[in-house]
């Protein structure tokens, strides 16, 4: 064999070893990333949201297992607006060991005390803090106010506006949603029962409350059913492999969150066998409507007073770690 031929073979051999090395490194990197995304590994340490700051304290996962609390908020802010009212609030306790979620809806008009301002509606807290301190600080201040009111440490928060909800559903190609009561929206009537709906229709249902017999409590039920439908559609086997792409797409429609893309993907992996109809416990905090003086509005306002004993017992049952 000629020297030139040997040299050529040697070059190909070096190239082959180099390519093999790159492939091995890539496989190891992907394997490590997948290992890190496994919920038991990913959620070993979880943040605790502080008011008006981007800094987070971390705490090790509870000794009784891997669990954390997520606050899901809906904002009425329109596209281009930097401030808005918190229009819906759902506080959820995620228990990865039991593959279970306990969720509690909090009425938007709940009367709360805001440090430095006085008594007002919960829906107004974010608006006034964002106006005075900026979008992110105001959002985290609202999270802190909900944490103070309920006594529940909040680890993660996700806030979207109604347009984001519509885009999320359309990204999934629509959802199957159980509508618990007949709902009239202008000239449109959606009868009680299960329907496959697009984002625009689900958006209209999630916003409706004035035509419902139980007002905001009925809207909370509709919003919960919408979230169930989103969860069931997103966790379809055909969508699990698309989770990173889906999360990246959905994240564009979020007003704000302290969850990273890897947090969301890991949570999606944790919930891949989750059945909302069997593994979700849902409770509505209810109260009594009263006309009370609002320190921010400097006028009387219709607010909801939550019985402190009811609040305490609900939190003990649904968020006891």
Q: How much strand content do the residues show?
A: 25-35%
- The low-pLDDT segments are 20-35, 59-64
In whole angstroms, how far apart are the ends?
Answer: 74 Å
- What strand order characterises the main sheet? 13-8-3-4-5-14
Number of strands: 16
Biggest β-sheet strands, sense, barrel: 6 strands, mixed
Order of helices and strands: HHEEEEEEEHHEHEEEEHHHHEHHEEEH
Instruction: Report helical residue fraction.
Output: 40-55%
Rounded to the nearest angstrom, the radius of gyration is 24 Å
Rough outline? globular
Comma- or semicolon-separated keywords:
globular; two-stranded antiparallel sheet; 321 residues; six-stranded mixed sheet; alpha+beta; 28% strand
Task: Describe this protein's structure.
- This protein has 321 residues and is of the alpha+beta class.
- Helix content is 45%, strand content 28%.
- It contains twelve helices and 16 strands.
- A six-stranded mixed beta sheet has the order 13-8-3-4-5-14. It has a two-stranded antiparallel sheet with strand order 1-2.
């Amino acid at each position: 064999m000629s020297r030139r031929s040997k040299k050529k073979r040697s070059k190909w051999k070096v190239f082959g070893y180099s390519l093999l090395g790159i492939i091995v490194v890539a496989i190891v990197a992907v394997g490590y990333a997948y290992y890190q995304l496994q919920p038991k590994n990913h959620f070993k340490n979880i943040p605790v949201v502080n008011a008006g700051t981007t800094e987070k304290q971390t705490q090790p996962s509870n000794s009784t297992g891997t669990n954390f609390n997520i606050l899901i908020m809906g904002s009425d802010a329109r596209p281009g607006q930097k401030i808005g009212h918190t229009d819906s609030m759902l506080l959820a306790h995620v228990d990865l060991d039991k593959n279970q979620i306990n969720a509690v809806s909090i009425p938007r008009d709940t009367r709360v005390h805001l440090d430095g301002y006085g008594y007002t509606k919960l829906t107004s807290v974010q608006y006034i803090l964002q106006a005075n301190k900026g979008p992110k600080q105001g959002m985290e201040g609202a999270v802190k106010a909900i944490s103070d009111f309920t006594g529940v440490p909040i680890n993660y928060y996700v806030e979207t506006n109604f347009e984001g909800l519509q885009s999320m559903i359309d990204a999934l190609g629509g959802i199957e949603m159980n509508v618990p009561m007949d709902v009239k929206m202008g000239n449109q009537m959606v009868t009680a029962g299960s329907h496959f709906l697009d984002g625009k229709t689900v958006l209209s249902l999630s916003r409706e409350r004035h035509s419902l017999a139980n007002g905001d409590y009925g809207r909370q039920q509709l919003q919960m059913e919408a979230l169930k439908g989103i969860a069931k559609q997103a966790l379809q086997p055909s969508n699990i492999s698309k989770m990173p792409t889906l999360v990246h797409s959905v994240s564009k429609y979020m007003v704000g969150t302290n969850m990273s893309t890897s947090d969301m993907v890991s949570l999606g992996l944790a919930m891949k066998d989750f059945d909302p109809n069997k593994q979700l416990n849902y409770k509505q905090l209810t109260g009594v409507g009263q006309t009370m003086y609002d320190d921010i509005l400097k006028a009387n306002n219709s607010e909801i007073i939550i019985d402190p004993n009811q609040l305490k017992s609900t939190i003990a049952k649904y968020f006891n770690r």
